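Why should sequence recovery work at all? Because a backbone constrains its sequence more than one might expect. Tight turns favour small or flexible residues, buried strands favour hydrophobic ones, and helices have their own preferences. The token representation captures these environments compactly. In the example below, the structure is given first.
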């Protein structure tokens, strides 16, 4: 067995490395959101349910705005869904720019699921996860796992 020398990782990355990782993260987040959304659409058809307006309702409540009608409410929710999912590529890029390997997927998944659950429960829009049905919990974790896994894969494919 031979010893492998590892290069020291600087504590703070260069600004150009951070911006490059953020850019890759945004594109990776968009890819992750696209794949997650496709999976959600299939799941909704199979289970015969409507799409959730929770993302849009949450942000509308925080901004103090209200939709004029149901169509506008759904469009705003779709916009928030895509923006929110794409935005989750940013922490993925930051994790990588600070040299973290192996940890990013677990840390990223924890951030995504934890933030979504906390925001919705804290605003009274959903019960805390321990009160969800087993089926709701499984589908939520599956969809978020697809988002994070695809974002991670896309990020790795975009790395030089």
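From this structural description, the recovered sequence reads:
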């Amino acid at each position: 067995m031979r010893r492998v020398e590892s290069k020291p990782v600087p504590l703070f990355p260069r600004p150009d490395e951070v911006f490059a990782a953020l850019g890759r993260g945004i594109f990776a987040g968009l890819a992750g959101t696209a794949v997650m959304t496709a999976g959600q659409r299939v799941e909704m058809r199979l289970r015969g349910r409507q799409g959730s307006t929770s993302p849009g309702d949450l942000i509308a409540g925080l901004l103090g705005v209200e939709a004029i009608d149901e169509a506008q409410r759904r469009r705003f929710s779709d916009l928030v869904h895509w923006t929110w999912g794409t935005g989750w590529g940013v922490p993925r890029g930051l994790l990588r720019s600070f040299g973290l390997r192996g940890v990013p997927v677990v840390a990223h998944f924890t951030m995504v699921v934890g933030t979504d659950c906390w925001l919705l429960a804290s605003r009274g829009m959903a019960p805390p996860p321990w009160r969800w049905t087993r089926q709701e919990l499984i589908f939520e974790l599956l969809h978020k796992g697809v988002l994070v896994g695809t974002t991670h894969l896309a990020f790795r494919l975009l790395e030089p």
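A few observations help interpret the result. The two ends are 30 Å apart (CA to CA).
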